[in-house]
């Protein structure tokens, strides 16, 4: 007998509280804690990251929904109210990332910080949030791959019963792609944690590295899914995507598409990886020296956390003044001996 987990954790009157929401809330909280902890190393107050999250989450929701609706416009054009009913499903993680980045750009600039420095601090928390958030898909029995034999899940992958049972949907077992992505992002978290302590890492490269790592995994995992957003592209493009994904065929069959021949997330993953490589090359080779990740982070507007390491004095807030320009003739020259 196979038992699926009830997606509703509990009810308060007529309001159902779903495991999906609890998992996503937990993911956001842990991501915030990781960012706050790293921010302390650079004397950035916790309130900054709390406000950061309040901007990033709504921006991500809007972006995730807009991304999905754009590629599924035929399903919404005759019922525009459905666009706003996100509880009916229909969001895309890449859209969420795009939306959150746009919101964060405005927030960070308003606080007087450099964008690359702040998103570097947020990247490890972001990838952990995705790792945890995918278990919300597990609770809902969604974002899975194509059909697979039960023996593959139990005997080949050696998955525990509660995962195998949850992947039994109406008598058919499916690839737990949520699990594959969760494992991939966990490994990515370890990679980012190690990289951000390396002395050669430039500002922005932890965030860019996150996109490279996530996009590689998403490209190959996306090919297993059956709910991918897709479009009908030229045959050469479809063949290119299939060719890049072909190493996975040694292990699994690709998921079938209801429409189209090019998966949007796969194409976007490839474009992101290429763009990320170009950005790293440009910032390392063609522009003035870029700050290192370990360099101090300074804002002309935001207060910073200053502590006295030699005493038990409480932390105080200090407002950073903008740098003052000094003319060369105003600099006091040292006396010659």
Quick synopsis:
The protein is mostly helical.
Describe this structure as you would to a colleague:
52% of the residues lie in helices and 7% in strands. With 337 residues, it is mostly helical. The protein has one domain. The strands form four sheets. Strands 1-2 form a two-stranded antiparallel ribbon. Strands 3-4 form a two-stranded antiparallel ribbon. Strand 1 (8-12) and strand 2 form a beta hairpin. One of its GO terms (cellular component) is plasma membrane. Belongs to the Lgt family. It comes from Paenibacillus psychroresistens.
Number of helices: 10
Query: Structural class, from secondary structure content?
Result: mainly alpha
Radius of gyration from CA coordinates: 24 Å
Instruction: Tell me the overall shape.
Output: globular
Distance between the termini: 92 Å
List segments where confidence is low: pLDDT < 50 over at least 5 consecutive residues. Answer: 310-337
Element-level helix/strand string: EEHHHHHHEEHHEHEHEE
Beta-strand share of residues: 5-15%
Task: Average the pLDDT over all residues and give the rounded result.
Answer: 87
What is the domain total for the residues? Answer: 1
The major pleated sheet works out as:
2 strands, antiparallel
Number of strands: 8
Task: Name the features.
10 helices; transferase; mainly alpha; 337 residues; membrane; Phosphatidylglycerol--prolipoprotein diacylglyceryl transferase; 8 strands; two-stranded antiparallel ribbon; Lgt; phosphatidylglycerol-prolipoprotein diacylglyceryl transferase activity
């Amino acid at each position: 007998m196979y038992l699926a987990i009830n997606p509703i954790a509990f009810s308060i009157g007529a309001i159902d509280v779903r495991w999906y929401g609890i998992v996503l809330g937990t993911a956001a909280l842990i991501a915030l804690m990781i960012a706050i902890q790293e921010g302390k190393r650079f004397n950035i107050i916790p309130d900054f990251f709390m406000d950061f999250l309040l901007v990033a989450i709504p921006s991500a929701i809007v972006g995730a929904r807009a991304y999905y609706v754009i590629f599924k416009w035929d399903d919404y054009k005759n019922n525009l109210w459905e666009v706003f009913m996100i509880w009916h499903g229909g969001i895309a993680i890449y859209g969420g990332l795009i939306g959150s980045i746009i919101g964060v750009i405005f927030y960070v600039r308003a606080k007087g910080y450099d964008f690359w420095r702040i998103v570097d601090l947020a990247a490890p928390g972001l990838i952990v949030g995705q790792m945890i958030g995918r278990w919300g898909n597990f609770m809902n029995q969604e974002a899975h791959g194509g059909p697979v034999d039960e023996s593959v899940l139990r005997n080949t992958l050696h998955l525990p019963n509660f995962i195998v049972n949850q992947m039994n949907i109406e008598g058919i077992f499916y690839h737990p792609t949520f699990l594959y992505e969760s494992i991939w992002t966990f490994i990515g978290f370890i990679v980012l944690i190690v990289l951000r302590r390396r002395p050669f890492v430039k500002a922005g490269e932890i965030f860019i590295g996150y996109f490279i790592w996530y996009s590689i995994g998403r490209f190959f995992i996306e090919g297993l899914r059956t709910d991918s957003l897709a479009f009908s592209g030229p045959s050469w493009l479809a063949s290119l995507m299939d060719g890049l994904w072909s190493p996975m065929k040694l292990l699994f069959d690709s998921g079938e598409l209801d429409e189209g021949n090019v998966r949007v997330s796969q194409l976007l993953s490839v474009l992101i990886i290429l763009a990320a490589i170009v950005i790293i090359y440009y910032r390392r080779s063609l522009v003035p020296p870029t700050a290192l990740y370990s360099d101090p982070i300074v804002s002309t507007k935001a207060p910073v956390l200053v502590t006295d390491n030699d005493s038990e004095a409480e932390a105080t807030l200090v407002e950073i003044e903008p740098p003052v320009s000094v003319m060369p003739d105003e600099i006091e020259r040292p006396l010659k001996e």
